[in-house]
Amino acid sequence: MPQGKRIGILVEEGFDDSELIELLRIAADFGLALTIGSSPSKSYRGKDGKLTILAATSAAEAVADDYDAILVPGGYAPDEMRLCQSMVDLVKRADNLGKVIVAVSHGPQLLISADIVRGRRITSWPSIAIDLENAGALWRDEPLVQDGNIISTRRSCDLPLLGAVLTAALDTDLSQGDPARANCVGPAAR
């Protein structure tokens, strides 16, 4: 497992508690994990009220170049994140750099706003499939899909699949070649 990687985990009010807990656990295996909110030093509460987390920095202060991966939990938070232009810009810049971007459940809503899903295979919570398709994504009803530097999962119960795929992605230079067409995982790759 790669060590010393900087992982940014985006947080906003109403994140999915179980998804954020699992993403924090996975990110801790790689080294430094920092929470990035819309405001610095602000506490954000999960939709189930099980977890409150303090943002280490704000999206406006975060620099995509400083992170190896950006993780986006689901819940209600992505709908709030997409209203924060600095979060949208951070994700767009990370994609332009070929950084690994993980979106869970409703997380791809933020990717839609960053305009990075067109022509890419993405999975998500089923209720946003139409939004992804309308944005040009190739939606798949699969537990985990990787298309280049973007890794997406449908729901929290699919997150145990993420560790190995994230490890491989962090060990690979996804900024080379055509990241939108590399390393697709799942039946869509065949």
Which features would summarize this protein structure in a list?
11 strands; Rossmann fold; two-stranded antiparallel sheet; alpha/beta; 7-stranded mixed sheet
What's the helix and strand layout?
Elements: E1 5-10, H1 17-28, E2 31-37, E3 43-45, E4 52-54, E5 57-58, E6 69-72, H2 77-81, H3 85-96, E7 100-104, H4 108-113, E8 121-122, H5 129-134, E9 138-139, E10 144-147, E11 150-153, H6 162-170
Parallel strand pairs: 1-2, 1-6, 2-5, 6-7, 7-11, 8-9
Antiparallel strand pairs: 3-4, 10-11
Account of the protein in words:
The protein is of the alpha/beta class and 190 residues long. It has a single domain, classed as Rossmann fold (3-Layer(aba) Sandwich), CATH 3.40.50. The chain contains six helices and eleven strands. A seven-stranded mixed β-sheet has the order 5-2-1-6-7-11-10, with helices on both faces. The chain has a two-stranded antiparallel ribbon with strand order 3-4. Strand 10 (144-147) and strand 11 (150-153) form a beta hairpin. The model is unreliable at 176-190 (pLDDT under 50).
Short characterization:
This protein has six helices and eleven strands.
CATH H level: which superfamily?
Class I glutamine amidotransferase (GATase) domain
Helix content: 25-40%
Query: What is the second-level CATH architecture?
Result: 3-Layer(aba) Sandwich
- Structural class from helices and strands? alpha/beta
**Portion in beta strands:** 15-25%
Spatial separation of the terminal alpha carbons = 27 Å
| Unreliable sequence segments | 176-190
User: H/E order of the elements?
Assistant: EHEEEEEHHEHEHEEEH
CATH class annotation: Alpha Beta
* Biggest sheet record: 7 strands, mixed
> In the CATH scheme, what's the topology name?
Rossmann fold
Overall number of structural domains: 1
The strands making up the biggest β-sheet line up spatially as: 5-2-1-6-7-11-10
Task: Calculate the mean pLDDT score and round it.
Answer: 89
Radius of gyration: 15 Å
- So how many helices? 6
Tally the beta strands.
Answer: 11
